[in-house]
Amino acid sequence: MDTRPGARSAAEPAGTARHAAAGSPKRATHGGCAGCLARPLAICASIPAADTHALEAAAGEVLLPAGATLASEGDPRREVYTVTRGMLRRVRLLSDGRRLVAGFLMAGDFIGFSGAPRYRHTLEAVTDCGLCAFPLQSMRSLCQRYPDLESGMLAQACSELDATRGNLMLLGRLAPGERLAGFLVELGARQQPRGGASDHVDLPMTRADIADHLGLTIETVSRSFTRLRQSGAIAFEDPRRIRLVDVAALRRAAGL
Amino acid sequence: MDTRPGARSAAEPAGTARHAAAGSPKRATHGGCAGCLARPLAICASIPAADTHALEAAAGEVLLPAGATLASEGDPRREVYTVTRGMLRRVRLLSDGRRLVAGFLMAGDFIGFSGAPRYRHTLEAVTDCGLCAFPLQSMRSLCQRYPDLESGMLAQACSELDATRGNLMLLGRLAPGERLAGFLVELGARQQPRGGASDHVDLPMTRADIADHLGLTIETVSRSFTRLRQSGAIAFEDPRRIRLVDVAALRRAAGL
DNA sequence: CGTCCGTTTGATCTGTGTCAATCGCTGTGG
DNA sequence: CCACAGCGATTGACACAGATCAAACGGACG
Predict the structure, then answer these.
(1) Structure-model confidence comparison of residues B199 and B14, the more confident one
(2) Which of B28-32, B194-198, B204-208 has the highest mean pLDDT?
(3) Are the Cβ atoms of B100 and A168 closer than 8 angstroms?
(4) What are the CA-CA distances from residue B25 to residues A3, A27, B66, B113 (Å)?
(5) Does B243 lie in the same domain as B192?
(6) Are A112 and A33 found together in one domain?
(7) What pLDDT sits at residue A16?
(8) Residue A16 lies in a domain
(9) Which 178-207 residues of chain A approach strand C with CB closer than 7 Å?
(10) Residues B208 and B233 placed together within one structural domain of the fold
């Protein structure tokens, strides 16, 4: 292993609109909670449907094209967000170019569980994204008015903590194939309540994103995919869409 | 790298009382919040000093000798805890013996930020420990009575999430020496408000614990210690007590 | 049809895991 | 009091998994 593993991995825009320029965030007025597909998955569900006007009043809508940056490491944190559509990655860079993707964010996920006054990660859109933005101050007053909202946030923060601790095991003790198996199972499980098929996983991110998420190189990720395919655990529809043939074997490999 | 890294690492009791039998938890009545050294560091600080009787009424005290187990992976979660004294480790085991130490818990740390109905980690005392135990139900009613308590819990959960995400970078992208540097800096920073000297770090845990925390082997941990010493970044007082000679270099190495 | 870029595959190198021996401290028993 | 056993930590030799280097493939788009 190299002293500087992953130093080659390059940050790059990617996703649905492959060759689109990164573009920049667009602000819009809030579209309303009633039709929001993410609402049942998000902390917003802690506020009764009758009171969504309070949420709508506080929130602004952000449209983020694939490749665009929502916030950069070191920026002051002024807002928190709920993802309503698309996927983002949470990235940290080392001065020598090594990159870590600390996680992927999907519809319903909350951005803002941090005690730090500044962002500790850069947030980049993997695909075109939609988000609800809440100024920190508004979120605080909403929490005071709706105690259930704070409870919901605590519950979601706890489940994110559980997930992050699970990733520690992936990175600390699992072999490449096992890490990939765990990643696919977890991603599949998260996509299912968001309209995904039970035995398919969509991979809107690049191999470099996966590699930097699993602490590997793109070559090792690719080889691990190939081996999982050869073992019959997965099948490719195309490089960005995988069929989970033997979920039990994948779960076993990941130590779940 | 092996397919089963760290498979050799053995779980073992250790700490202050090296050869003491593991022993078992002892229950006691609560000693009172007034003299509690951990209180200012813990979520308990969210409840005004005048109202600590509510905490004391809900809490039981647990004394845990070094090596003893507070809870095992898979056990149903009935209580949450605040550590008042000593150090614990949060351990997950794979069926083939690979072990991950997901973290170390110190005075003021809260045990119970999880959405799962069962423990996802085994909690073992590294040294003799003291804890305050709260039945889940009592904690829920305390949160309702004292909204600041729930805010405090959310804040602490967020800071734990920040710390855990930081560990992802350690495990995912840093070389052994860098991981160890980051570990020492972080441990030193946590020990300082708990009565530690600013330039010393106590390591009550074994090299095996450190190895399983950093995703390495004990040999690599030992060699990394040696190299940090040779480079002048640290000095040994004994294997369990380190002087941080060049904190800046350590922070730089860890990408902080 | 050709370029671009992400992905896959092959060959080689090296850092870290594995195996093994030694050191040093602690506690024990003759 | 000293010899010995036990355990954790350190150090050395070697092997191999995965990183690095390099090339080819394949779809998207102009």
Answers:
(1) B199
(2) B204-208
(3) yes
(4) 43, 56, 10, 21
(5) yes
(6) yes
(7) 38
(8) no
(9) 206-207
(10) yes
Is residue B129's pLDDT more than 50? yes
H or E segment to which residue A218 belongs: helix A218-230
Please indicate, yes or no, whether residues B109 and B86 belong to a single structural domain of this protein: yes
pLDDT > 70 in chain B, percent: 92
Q: Is residue A4 part of a domain?
A: no
B210 in the same domain as B87: no
Question: Distances in Å between the alpha carbon of A69 and those of A21, A64, A90, A104?
Answer: 12, 8, 10, 14
Q: What is the pLDDT of residues B214-242, one digit of tens each?
A: 999 999 999 999 999 999 999 999 999 99
Does residue A163 sit within a domain?
no
Chain C positions with any atom < 7 A from a protein CB: 5-11, 14-20, 26-28
Between positions 135 and 194 of A, the ones with CB within 8 A of B are 143-144, 147, 150-151, 153-155, 157-162, 164-169, 171-173, 175
Question: Looking at the structure, do residues B123 and B176 belong to the same domain, yes or no?
Answer: no
Q: What is the CATH number of the domain that holds B240?
A: 1.10.10.10
Of B130, B158, B186, the residue at which a domain comes to its end is B158
- Print the domain residue range for B175: 171-254
Say whether both A142 and A202 belong to one domain: no
- Asked if residue B163 belongs to a domain, the reply is no
Q: CA-nearest residue of chain A to B217?
A: A173
**Is there a single domain that holds both residue A119 and residue A185?**
no
Q: How far is the CA of B11 from the C1' of C20 (A)?
A: 21
| 3 state SS for chain B | CCCCCCCCCCCCCCCCCCCCCCCCCEEECCCCCCCCCCHHHCHHHHCCHHHHHHHHHHCEEEEECCCCEEECCCCECCEEEEEEECCEEEEEECCCCCEEEEEEECCCCEECCCCCCECCCEEEECCCEEEEEEEHHHHHHHHHHCHHHHHHHHHHHHHHHHHHHHHHHHHHHCCHHHHHHHHHHHHHHHHHHHCCCCCEEECCCCHHHHHHHHCCCHHHHHHHHHHHHHCCCEEEEECCEEEECCHHHHHHHCCC
pLDDT digits (tens, 9 = 90+) for A55-96: 999 999 999 999 999 999 999 999 999 999 999 999 999 999
Question: Residues B144-157: what's their mean pLDDT?
Answer: 97
| Per-residue model confidence (pLDDT) at position A5 | 47
Number of structural domains chain B divides into: 2
- pLDDT digit string, tens, across residues B199-219: 999 999 999 999 999 999 999
pLDDT band, very low/low/confident/very high, at B21 (cuts 50, 70, 90): low
The last residue of a domain, from among A158, A180, A215: A158
- With cut-offs at 50, 70 and 90, classify the pLDDT of residue A21: low
